[in-house]
Write a structure and sequence with these properties.
alpha+beta; 7-stranded antiparallel sheet; 7 strands; globular
């Protein structure tokens, strides 16, 4: 079990989850979503930075109509926590706690997602969406620094306060 940890690579199954989702969303983009006004025709379906975290796959799915952080079970891994479709649940990632909506994608199964962008008209191409998705994943997986002491005033002793030596402390 990889509780609270992240890893990348094909061997852990997370990348395979991303590849499956890309295939499914490409079929949706070429079918039911084709030429709908909500789609940005300059964009393409992408899976960005899929990794394994707490025994599940986490990554960003980009389509011409949305960009979502998604969580899914990996092959031969544990199921996602029990929930009903449409429920909101909190997921703790290294940098933040996010709320995801429990969903289901035909041909895939359960997929919990948090929206980053929708619609996608603010992006001018796949490079821009990949960069934004990678930045989102980096932000979610960068643990906050322990700044509790970074801004604390340096300790002063009584002599420094009484004789004005406090300014010399750094």
């Amino acid at each position: 079990m990889m509780s609270g940890s992240a890893s990348a690579g094909m061997a852990d199954g997370a990348a395979a989850v991303g590849e499956r989702l890309v295939a499914i969303y490409r079929a949706i983009a070429a079918g039911p979503m084709l030429r709908l006004p909500i789609c940005n025709d300059r964009l393409e379906v992408q899976a960005v930075d899929f990794r394994r975290y707490d025994d599940h796959a986490v990554g960003v799915i980009v389509t011409p109509w949305f960009m979502n952080v998604v969580l899914a079970a990996v092959a031969n891994g544990p199921a996602l926590p029990p929930a009903r479709r449409g429920d909101a649940r909190a997921v703790a990632l290294p940098a933040a706690r996010i709320e995801v909506i429990v969903g289901e994608v035909p041909g895939f199964g359960r997929l919990d997602a948090a929206s980053l962008f929708s619609p996608m008209f603010g992006f001018d191409g796949p490079g821009a969406t990949r960069e934004a998705a990678a930045a989102a994943m980096a932000a979610l997986f960068t643990a906050p620094h322990d700044d509790a002491n970074a801004y604390a005033a340096p300790a002063r002793d009584r002599r420094a306060l009484l004789f004005g030596r406090g300014a010399a402390l750094s």
